[in-house]
Amino acid sequence: MKPIWQQQLKAALRNDHSRPLQHTENFSAAAADLFPTVITNDMLGLIDRHNPQDPILAQFLPDAAETQTTEGFKADPVGDSAATQVPGLIHKYHGRVLLIASGSCAVNCRYCFRRHFPYSQSYAPRNNWQKSIQYIQQTSTLHEVILSGGDPLTLDTDNLNNLSSQLESIPHIKTLRIHSRIPVVLPQRIDTEFLNWAKALKLHKVMVLHINHANELSTTAQQAIAALKTAGFVLLNQSVLLKGVNDSADTLADLSHRLFACSILPYYLHQMDAVQNAAHFCIPEPEAYKIHQQLKALLPGYLTPKLVKEIAGEDSKSHIIPSQ
Q1: What's 71's DSSP letter?
Q2: Which phi and psi (to 5°) does residue 255 adopt?
Q3: What is the rounded CA–CA span in Å between residue 212 and residue 163?
Q4: Which candidate, 58, 88, 176, 291, has a CA 20 to 30 Å from the CA of 51?
């Protein structure tokens, strides 16, 4: 029998858990046709059904606003296609590459900058990492590999072990970084087998979580995060600034305090990428800067995430500065 987390993931991907959202106010079938509704039971259970402005519901509910096209918003707003070296391997920044290890997610965030990403043609297939590994072997300036997706933790642990073993054999690779929503949206994935794999890793290991609101930190998520800390992960968080979800300094300050209580350091607060069909989440940069200034006044520096945006073709994330 498959582990419980794989059964739950399969149910989420076939939309078993998303059906209750179809009876929710503002649900749009047309928006769901554009981008499937995927949510886990864990996230569904945290939604306040009596609150149409619930910050978790807003992140996963297909809304009619998604059917609109907005000038300046694109299918590939961060230039992933141009930076793809071999299928599934994106090399934008010095010293590190991003490996699209999986085309699956346990949830579909409605604002996702990869909602239009051609995963069927553009990710490194399971058990067939060779082209990506060869590129990494041949590029001696690299020191870090970032596993992304989709969500890389939708891979089973055998596949993760297969990949990490090959990376460990490359002398210039020192760090494995994993970007994942899984410990929060499907905490059962952080099981004994996974933790044993993590503890045995010879590489430095970093987990960058994606948590936008303190309400996402359920008891089971906190337990999974504690297990990651015990396994030796450096834990960071990146959030996206989203209209109707976390667009206030008080909300973001509460998130930072809750993160720190879980041994997670706030890392980035992203200006939302200008992805087509998600413009209704976007907050103008001057307003984003104002919120961040208010946040800085509420928090010590080590709990204040950097306010950044990604500009296609730039050699790093860009800090948002006040408009002149």
Answers
A1: T
A2: -60, -45
A3: 29
A4: 291
